[in-house]
Specification:
binds adenosine-5'-diphosphate; 23 strands
């Protein structure tokens, strides 16, 4: 396209033409039609129905005006520039067919380059486009008069286009187009006003509806709240600043014994004429202290308990009051609420009474007792005695009037005895009773046993710990006294024994002399017998005295064990050999069975002699003639066991455990027959234990007894080497005589 051509063309056509080229539309090429599908067209017509209705009479009018024109057609395009409808004159049909413009075709610049509707849409103003001949030379000239139709908001709604043979174009057509467009726009505006009005009306209707709905909802909610308020267990009252009730729910009416009519608008003080308000301490509440009056003064009241009396009825209530302020913080209402706690209060009183009763019973028991809640360790029940005891234990700091409500921690921290807490925790954890042994409490100089017993709840959990204190001062003091007395007795025996030992030894010596060959011949048979008896009894006396002295020595801690390494087999044999006389005399067989021929261990030989002779003398004592006594030596693990087995009368099971206690004789009837003090076995046991051994007894009544002494298998380091058993036979005979003295009692 050259400059010449541009100069010849109207600028608007030139521009349109350029735009078409930029869209790759060649002026001389017939492009493919761009058009709506059938459905799209129907939708577009439907969307623009109102527009079509409005435009129709205008366009018909236009035709009436130009009725004499042949080559004219008018078309209405939608805002996307697609033809909605065509109106043609007689010859218009022909142009229409020629240019391919029928409903649904697109007349934007994509179709054959420029055209009126496309340009009007782009420029958004009415255009006159002449000179199609520049593009499509095969057609004769056509002039396009196109103008956008705006909706009331000013957006393009449609394009009205008049196409006319160029030679038929005249200015009147231009005016007709603009008038038509304006007319249509005005009508659209009018309609849109109507629409707006309609929409406004609709909005109004809807908001009225909404308001009604809201009102209904509010009403329903209010009814609901009213129902809730009325059905609330809690009494609710609201007073205004004049002190008048504006709301009293049913529970409140019930509590005050008046109906709503009576109360609403009545003044706060009016309630006083219906009921009497009292504080818990039965003091009448003055009107100015009525809950409503207090709240109206700005006070917030929490959990105030009142007694409400009406006639003979008496109720307990707990009341709360809160001021309700307006936005500026000024008092508006007093909101009062109250709950009937009569049942609870009566239960509480009953429990209190019960507790007091239990307390009285416990007081009468005369034993200090307290019940502690577990695990928080708070005292729930306590009797006077227990409070007294705690005060006694606290000494100067003790001024507790009642233990109930106090924590154990609180009390024991003054007492500085944490054991109490530990005992209670132990009871809670073990679920078992704990017995705390006597302890002396410095301040009180008394001894107590404490018993901590668990109390279980329904679920079988420990809920309480009952603590009982037993005053065992008398018992403890008595035992102490007894111990003291026993000691005194022992001391006495010890002294007496010392004093007796020398005369007994002298008597013994004298009798021995009398019975020696030198003097014996001068004695008559009777006298000899008597002297013999004296000798025998002097041995018994010596044995007794020796035993007492040994015992006393041990108890005073003077009995030292002098270990030497000895052959226990040889020693035992020697002791047994020294008893030949007795075996013959009593016609009892005495045998030794030993696992080993020699066994060297560390023992105190004197003590061992005593032990073995004691066991053997008992065996002889309680074994009838013609029976057997056997001594066994055997080794078991770390011990050498020496057992003395007899075929004597045996010891009953119940006595077996006691024979090692001091002064125990199994059968006192034997006392006369086989005199003894019951000290021998206890001494034996102590001596065995001193040598770090142990003693056991197995016995069967009527069959015999077996005493087994366990001595540890060990030696001591000795510089001189091993000691032999070096007592002379007369020395041994003397010991045997003493240890066996009881055998010839009579
Ligand atoms: P005592 O020093 O008076 O001899 P013991 O302590 O030796 O007393 O013995 C205590 C009691 O044990 C004896 O009185 C006797 O009843 C019983 N007893 C001890 N040994 C035997 C035994 N071998 N057979 C039956 N009873 C025995």
């Amino acid at each position: 396209m050259n400059k010449q051509k541009q100069e010849k063309m109207e600028p608007v056509i030139w521009e349109s033409w350029q735009r078409s080229i930029s869209y790759n539309i060649h002026p001389r090429k017939i492009e493919k039609l761009i058009a709506y599908s059938k459905e799209e067209l129907e939708r577009a017509i439907h969307e623009n129905q109102k527009l079509l209705e409005i435009a129709e009479p205008y366009i018909q009018n236009m035709f009436a005006i130009v009725h004499d024109m042949k080559d004219i057609y008018i078309n209405l395009l939608d805002k996307r520039c697609y033809t909605l409808k065509n109106w043609t004159g007689d010859e218009g049909e022909y142009i229409l067919i020629e240019v391919g413009s029928h409903p649904g075709t697109c007349w934007k610049e994509k179709y054959r380059g420029t055209n009126g509707p496309g340009t009007a849409m782009y420029l958004n103003k009415p255009v006159l486009v002449k000179g199609w001949e520049h593009f499509c030379e095969m057609y004769h000239g056509i002039a396009c008069l196109a103008a956008p139709i705006h909706d009331p908001k000013g957006d393009i709604l449609a394009i009205l286009n008049i196409a006319v043979a160029a030679d038929e174009y005249n200015k009147g057509l231009w005016g007709m187009l603009l008038t038509g467009v304006r007319g249509i726009e005005r009508e659209l505006q009018h309609i849109s006003h109507q629409y707006e009005m309609e929409a406004l009306n609709q909005q109004l209707r809807e908001s009225v509806k909404k308001e009604r709905r809201l009102k209904k909802e509010v009403k329903e909610k209010a009814q609901l709240i009213e129902a809730i308020i009325d059905n609330m267990y809690e009494g609710l009252l609201i007073c205004n600043t004049d002190g008048k009730y504006v709301l009293v729910n049913e529970s409140a009416q019930d509590l005050l014994g008046a109906n709503s009519n009576e109360l609403v608008s009545a003044e706060i003080g009016y309630i006083g004429s219906l009921v009497v308000f009292k504080y818990e301490n039965e003091k009448v509440v003055p009107i100015e202290e009525y809950l409503g009056n207090r709240v109206l003064k700005g006070e917030t009241v929490e959990n105030q308990v009142y007694i409400v009396e009406k006639g003979r009825s008496k109720r307990y209530i707990v009341a709360n009051g809160t001021p309700i302020l307006d936005e500026e913080g000024k008092m508006k209402y007093a909101l009062l609420s109250c709950t009937d706690i009569t049942k609870m209060k009566y239960n509480e009183l009953a429990v209190k009474k019960q507790r007091e009763f239990v307390g009285k019973v416990l007081d009468m028991l005369g034993v200090p007792m307290a019940v502690i809640r577990y695990p928080d360790l708070i005292c729930e029940i306590s009797n006077v005695k227990s409070t007294d005891l705690v005060n006694q234990l606290l000494g100067e700091k003790g001024n507790i009037s009642n233990l109930v409500g106090k924590t154990v921690e609180e009390v024991v921290s003054i007492m500085q005895n944490q054991n109490f807490i530990e005992y209670m925790i132990q009871v809670g954890e073990s679920r078992k009773e704990i017995f705390a042994k006597a302890e002396l409490y410095a301040h009180s100089n008394q001894y107590y046993h404490f018993i901590f017993s668990p109390i279980f709840d329904k679920k079988n959990n420990v809920s309480h710990v009952a603590v009982t204190a037993l005053d065992v001062s008398n018992e403890v003091n008595y035992n102490k006294k007894m111990e003291e007395m026993a000691k005194q007795k022992d001391d006495f025996f010890s002294i007496v024994s010392h004093e007796l030992r020398s005369p007994a030894a002298l008597i013994n010596l004298a009798t021995q002399m009398l019975l020696s060959t030198y003097y014996e011949k001068d004695l008559s048979d009777k006298a000899r017998k008597l002297v013999h008896k004296i000798k025998q009894n002097s041995y018994r006396l010596l044995r007794l005295v020796n035993n007492f002295l040994d015992m006393a020595k041990i108890e005073e801690g003077f009995a030292h064990i002098e270990y030497t390494n000895v052959d226990i087999v040889q020693l035992t044999k020697a002791i047994i050999d020294s008893l030949q006389l007795f075996t013959l005399d009593k016609k009892i067989k005495l045998d030794l069975y030993t696992e080993v021929n020699k066994k060297i261990i560390a023992i105190d030989t004197d003590k061992y002699e005593k032990i073995l002779l004691n066991l053997l003398s008992n065996a002889f004592k309680f074994t009838p003639s013609d029976r057997k006594i056997t001594v066994h030596i055997h080794l078991v693990e770390k011990y050498i066991i020496i057992s003395v087995e007899d075929q004597g009368i045996g010891i009953s099971q119940e006595k077996v455990d006691k024979i090692f206690d001091r002064f125990v004789q199994v059968d006192s009837s034997f006392r006369r027959k086989n005199e003894g003090t019951g000290i021998g076995l206890s001494l034996v046991k102590i001596l065995v234990e001193k040598m770090e051994g142990k003693i056991e007894v197995h016995s069967q009544v009527g069959k015999g007894s077996c005493f087994s002494v366990y001595l540890p298998d060990r030696r001591i380091q000795e510089e001189q080497g091993m000691t032999n058993y070096i007592k002379s036979s007369s020395e041994i005979a003397e010991i045997v005589n003493i240890e066996f003295a009881d055998i010839y009692g009579e």
